[in-house]
Amino acid sequence: MDTIIAAEPVAQINKQFFADVINGLNSIPKKLNSKYFYDKQGDKLFQEIMASPEYYLTNCEMEILTQQSADIAASLTQQNTPFDLIELGAGDATKSIHLLQQLIREGVSFNYLPLDISANVIRHLEDHLPNELPKLQIHGFTGDYFDMLDQAVQFSSNRKVVLFMGANIGNMLPIEAKAFCIKLKNSLLRGDMLIIGFDLKKNPKEILAAYNDSEGITKRFNLNLLRRINTELNADFILDDFDHYANYDPRSGACKSYLISLKDQTVKIGSNILHFKKNEYIDMEISQKYSKQEIGELMTDAGFEYVTNFYDTNHYFVDSVWSVK
Ligand SMILES: C[S@@+](CC[C@H](N)C(=O)[O-])C[C@H]1O[C@@H](n2cnc3c(N)ncnc32)[C@H](O)[C@@H]1O
Predict the structure, then answer these.
(1) Residue ranges in the chain assigned as alpha helix (H)
(2) Mutational test site, ligand 1, from 17, 38, 129, 194, max ligand atoms within 8 Å of CB
């Protein structure tokens, strides 16, 4: 039976957010979409996660960007024509700024078009990046990946280079990642390029620790979505009645985060009543890990061809450069 979503009296609520939350929490198992993690507080908590000792991903990709930006720039500028650098889910751009600096140093002609679902980060980038990089041509887009990509590709007639870093692709199931890459390829033209970051399969304990940090920042990051639902959708989650649980399956490469209800409880979201059983889980986020072979298969299946790979010293992470066939 279809879930009936009661109309909400609160005029200013984000209708899509509301519908996704109600549908997700009425499905079996209960689910919330991790793209909603990123409000102002979520952005701040994610920065804390990136700075935590366990979250190796940022250091690895930062090493690639700081040590190899000249080579990355060279792989993008072989055609020697202006391009639009479209960054999907740009976040605070602390890593991509090294590539931007390199391109500016080399006098390359490009526009930087960051897009992100968090209005807060796009505002921040548009306010701050021009101070750090006065020569940067920047135009931000706030919204979901493909809604904004459709607009960003119209920005100019330049060729496109899409930047999709931070292993954001890992927040999709492999089947969704394949559909995403196919859609991305279909939004681009022959010769356009993609730089895409993957977290590679490695020691399971190291992977799990990155999503289960000792200071509990990841727990607060997950619980923040319940707080956001309380504030923006007029709900009454009691955060202490939920705990965070993460696990990693080395066979599938899926690292998953859950919130666990610590008791039988009822939560109101607007006029919707939701029941949680003791120990029932909410599926919060996947962070999929890839082997080199799986990355190659994804690239080929989606219709891209290999240009080059940039690894950190430990081969924990790869930024892979593809072009549209
Ligand atoms: C894990 S952070 C990574 C940020 C950045 N790429 C980096 O490497 O540091 C994910 C970013 O993607 C954004 N994001 C997540 N889902 C999105 C979606 N569906 N559409 C647009 N942006 C999204 C989030 O707001 C967040 O800023």
Answers:
(1) 15-26, 40-51, 56-76, 96-105, 119-132, 145-152, 174-187, 204-210, 217-233, 292-302
(2) 38
How are the residues of the chain apportioned to helix, strand and coil, as percentages rounded to the nearest 5? 40, 25, 30
The pair of structure tokens assigned to 281 is: 């889980």
Ligand 1: which of 148, 149, 168, 211 to mutate, most ligand atoms within 8 Å of CB? 168
Of ligand 1's atoms, which has the minimum distance to the CA of residue 145?
Answer: 20
What's residue 13's pLDDT? 61
Beta bridge partners of 197: 319
Domains of the chain in sequence order: 15-31+206-288 (no CATH), 56-199+315-324 (3.40.50.150)
Single-letter amino acid, residue 141: F
- Helix extents (H) in 237-291: none
Residue with the nearest Cα to atom 17 of ligand 1?
Answer: 35
Query: Tokens 């399969």 identify what position?
Result: 201
- pLDDT for position 14: 87
| Residues 183-231: tens digit of each pLDDT | 999 999 999 999 999 999 999 999 999 999 999 999 999 999 999 999 9
Where the chain has pLDDT below 50, the residues are 1-11
Ligand 1 binding pocket (C-beta < 6 A) is 35, 38, 46, 89-91, 95, 116-118, 121, 144-145, 165-166, 168
